[in-house]
Amino acid sequence: MDLSVNFLGLSLKNPIIVSAGPLTGSGSMMRKAIEAGAGAVVTKTIANEIRPNVRPRLVKGREGLHNIELYSGFTLEEWENEIAYAKIHGAVVIANILGHTSSEIAYIAQKVEQFGADAVELGVSCPHGEGLEGVISEPSKLYEFTKAVVDRIKIPVMVKLSSNTVNVVKLARAAEKAGASAISGIDTVRSIAGVDIEKGRVLLPTFGGYSGDAIRPIGLAAIASIAQATSIPICGIGGITNYEHILEYMMLGASTVQVCTSIILNGYEHISTLLDGLNGWMAQHSYRNFDEIKGMALVSLKSFEEIKQEPYVSQPVGNCKSMQCNRCEKSCIWGAIKVNRENVRVDRKLCTGCGLCVSVCPQRIFELRWKD
């Protein structure tokens, strides 16, 4: 099975890219990711200013990871050796860069191009620290930043977008108009890790970013919206923990994906687990390459005006093996489901076909069917 992809004009052995963050903070760390099977790596954010990382800075949430980690601990000049080391060991290196003005970010882009980076990713949407609110919320500002970089370098430019904005589509169009070769998204979601209610203190001392399972629906919505509105390649990011999630992003228009949190929590070997799953699924379904599935789910995505008001009703299609569970009855706000010792019944007159019982039931015994 051919898992290779062409992205940003670069030949990748597979679509899994390790995203900018704790796993890509040095050449040796990027080497580990490549040797574990990743198709490419994105450096930790490279900036002119070194910001020391606080301790602690990572907290595992129920469905993800909170972090307040900032930029790279290396100076811009030191990244020459780190990029060179990764490339000597076979890495395709995308440099994630940050500047506070268009001229600054263009300068950094020129430097990493000279260092041998294969492409750059504009990291202008990170919610950590002070952020760059003007860039991530104003299409004109993003256009200015992107255009400045595109005009100064020859390698491809990818723009990383965020859900922490009003209209991600307008930003994607601005990046495309400015000459970006691709869009990546989403960045982490602005968050507070939580509060220790016994001590009356926050778990991490400042605002940070949330990543992992919980943000995947947000990421999928952003990628689908961008795919519908632009014609440049997309890299999907957010909550990818298994191969099915990679396929979801691709079926909504992504050509590649970036993964970080699930690798942090499961080790570098998780990359091979993802690849094995992809390989098996593609072979099982007789797909030859990812182009055959890219964007295939977009046709089923409709506006509210296009949705037909079909008369669905819920119906049990199997026997409940745990009458004590009772999740279906408890969650049916219409009072249509009743569970007794012998069976599960649905009152068809009360059921409105909302569909919640289908996903709430751990045994999956419900189905939506025609009311008539």
TrEMBL record:
Q: Which residues belong to any copy of the 4Fe-4S ferredoxin-type domain?
A: 342-371
Q: What name is this protein filed under?
A: Dihydroorotate dehydrogenase B (NAD(+)), catalytic subunit
Q: Does the record carry Metal-binding as a key word?
A: yes
Family of this protein:
Belongs to the dihydroorotate dehydrogenase family. Type 1 subfamily.
Q: Which cofactor does it need?
A: FMN
Catalytic activity from the UniProt record? 5,6-dihydrothymine + NAD(+) = thymine + NADH + H(+); (S)-dihydroorotate + NAD(+) = orotate + NADH + H(+); 5,6-dihydrouracil + NAD(+) = uracil + NADH + H(+)
Copy the pathway line from the protein's UniProt record.
Pyrimidine metabolism; UMP biosynthesis via de novo pathway; orotate from (S)-dihydroorotate (NAD(+) route): step 1/1
At the top level, the lineage of the source is Bacteria
Q: Which GO terms describe its cellular component?
A: cytoplasm
Enzyme nomenclature, EC number: 1.3.1.1, 1.3.1.14
Task: Enumerate the SUPFAM superfamilies for this protein.
Answer: 4Fe-4S ferredoxins, FMN-linked oxidoreductases
Return one Gene Ontology term, BP aspect. Answer: uracil catabolic process
